[in-house]
From TrEMBL, chains A, B:
It comes from the Bacteria. GO terms for molecular function: glycosyltransferase activity; histidine-tRNA ligase activity. Keywords: Glycosyltransferase, Transferase. SUPFAM superfamilies: Class II aaRS and biotin synthetases (SSF55681). This is ATP phosphoribosyltransferase regulatory subunit. Residues 11-314 form the Class II Histidinyl-tRNA synthetase (HisRS)-like catalytic core domain. GO terms for cellular component: cytoplasm. GO terms for biological process: histidyl-tRNA aminoacylation. InterPro entries: aa-tRNA-synth_II/BPL/LPL, HisRS-like_core, HisRS/HisZ. L-histidine binds at residues 85-87, 129, 133.
Length: 379, 379
């Protein structure tokens, strides 16, 4: 016997009705939040010229560009790529068709993306990516809006136990240039040891002065205090004040519902962020629900702030939408009565042939002359 | 200067906010209709093994299979294809994961599809396909439900002047086998001349007896009467009775709002349909809004009925959604008041920095202490 999964390539799967209903409900809830906050949706295409897509991914994301499926377009004889990330497409739209639109420009998107190779942490190669980009600003106010919006979207999707982990993607560069000098050839090694949180390696790499950074992590208030102590020369002061303001905004907005943590040296997934990055978590998810931060649009160098949510991933932890009452419409039923029920939010399934059993078809009710009658659950 | 369109391959385009809003509104309206009628959404992946996708496209749709972008999957070393049609994927799901689900099984879908080569009639290579499939039935009742559902979906999307053109995809085969015999080698030629509606060619091809079919087209009642006259031996009687019953159902449902026509020899786009096919049109659309019909699922040979709508295409003729009132939230605004407005259906845009002009940002109102105040339109 062929098993259903044998029919699909690794990392690609069908979403059957229950799972698809969770994804659709989470998607609509998140998109409605973005729409309500003034973000206008745009729809870029699935495919672009590879050179254009890769060129819009900042240098540090070259790995991402290599992750795209590519093929020759018989129409242009040029190489096309299937997008692995929608963010660069939004940057392109902001820099071309919407370059004269007033700033700050708020854009939202939602669509499928595909990577050629799954990561060890996440076997999925297709992802339903949803996000918001605030073009023209990378200030504390912009970052606060992005974090608040992401938290509100996750809450609207029904997630609980939301937490936000802040990071400072350019921390080592900033410290190395001012407070804790490093030779240019030491910077990469120090970053690498901080990434792996290896105290011995950090010392060996000449980064002993960076050791306290390993301990400036955890709940926001205490981690920030630890980071302020590291920052003897005040090189980080404006960044740390910014983090504090963002945390205060989020705290005020969410009444403390979203827990905030700080991991200032976390760089994974923030290769193209500038001074601020954040990762979103929620109860029931083994992996991040999304991430975001401030950045510069590749090509135009315009400042921007945004975030991405992985809808199919977060839908795993979203509540199953309440099933609607489902009414069986017998042959010869009253069409107007059925239409009225649908207008009131009921679902209907019409009988097509003799011998159909309403309960087998998942119906909870049957339409009778006097209206819908509840079906006895089967014994 | 690079023009924005130079950045995208032929037949692929960005949908900017106004157009994207029309597509989103039409999509939700159509999906809500399918959901209300008991169709459960599923989400198959963008990519599959080419052999699996092509094998699910019935023989006659080999052209469609050739229309897919293909590339080698480094994970499996097998050829993958980017789907050009979601219908075969629904057939696969119905025959595998949902093979034991009770019939009739009602499934809905909506997603992006891509063809490698545009047609002369439609330069788009990416299409947003939405549809419904009724698995396990290809009866008159099933066909009536599919047509009614499609018409209701188009109406919900705001289209007007909806018309449905019925066809009988296996008409020539049926007549050739019984009432108007043709030698096997004549059938293809007669079909071809009927396709081009060439009376002279039809006679030359030995299909003189088929000439009246060229005139059995147009408004449903008169075309059906003409077709009944052709059907001297009654070979088509059950099909014609079926068409009449479907037309009566649609007429009753739509109060005659949907015009019905008949073009019994139309085969283009119906290569995999069995006895019944239909094409949907609406005011303001140069091309069809969608099509559907009865068919057998390739592989399992299970009977099914369904239809497809091309959302991006039909959104061209859908009304622009009423813009929501858009409130500018000045620095230091009352967050609770803003949240209340959003809950009431207003959209908000928050000020990020000094010097922003609410009207430049598209706002119609500004939040003041007493609530939202309308902004004077700029002179």
């Amino acid at each position: 016997m062929t098993q259903p999964n044998d029919l699909l390539p690794e990392g690609l799967e069908d979403r059957l009705p229950l799972e698809a209903a969770r994804i659709t409900a989470a998607m609509r809830a998140c998109l409605d939040v973005l729409h309500a906050h003034g973000y206008d949706r745009v729809r870029p295409p699935l495919l672009e010229f590879e050179a254009s897509l890769a060129g819009r991914m900042a240098g540090a994301v070259a790995g991402e560009a290599r992750a795209m499926f590519r093929f020759v377009d018989p129409a242009s004889l040029r190489t096309l790529a299937l997008r692995s990330d929608i963010t660069p497409q939004i940057g392109r739209i902001a820099s071309t068709s919407l370059k004269d639109a007033p700033r700050p420009l708020r854009l939202a998107y939602c669509g499928d993306t595909v990577v050629i190779k799954a990561s060890q942490l996440d076997p999925a190669r297709e992802r339903l990516q949803l996000g918001a980009e605030l073009i023209g600003a990378d200030s504390v106010a912009a970052a606060s809006e992005a974090v608040m919006l992401a938290v509100e979207a996750l809450g609207a999707a029904g997630l609980t136990g939301i937490s936000v982990d802040f990071t400072l993607p350019d921390l080592v560069d900033t410290l190395a240039a001012k407070a804790l000098p490093l030779a240019p050839e030491q910077i990469a090694a120090v970053r690498r040891e901080l990434d792996t949180k290896d105290a011995g390696g950090l010392k060996a790499a000449g980064g002993a002065a960076y050791l306290p950074l390993l301990y400036a992590t955890g709940p926001f208030a205490s981690a920030l205090a630890a980071l302020r102590e590291v920052d003897a020369g005040g090189a980080l002061a404006s960044r740390l004040d910014g983090l504090e303001a963002i945390a205060a905004s989020v705290g005020a907005m969410s009444d403390g519902a979203a827990r905030i943590t700080l991991d200032p040296t976390e760089r994974h997934g923030f290769e193209y962020q500038s001074w601020f990055g954040f990762t979103l978590y929620a109860d029931g998810l083994r992996r991040a629900a999304g991430r975001g931060g401030t950045y510069r649009i590749a090509g135009s160098d315009e400042p921007a702030t945004g975030f991405t949510l992985y809808l199919d991933r977060l839908a795993d932890a979203a509540p199953q939408p309440e099933p609607a009452r489902l009414v069986f419409l017998p042959l010869g039923h009253d069409h107007a009565a059925a239409a009225t029920l649908r207008a009131l939010g009921w679902r209907t399934r019409a009988q097509l042939a003799e011998g159909e059993d309403p309960r087998t078809l998942g119906c909870t009710h049957i339409l009778k002359a006097g209206g819908p009658a509840e079906l006895e659950p089967r014994q």
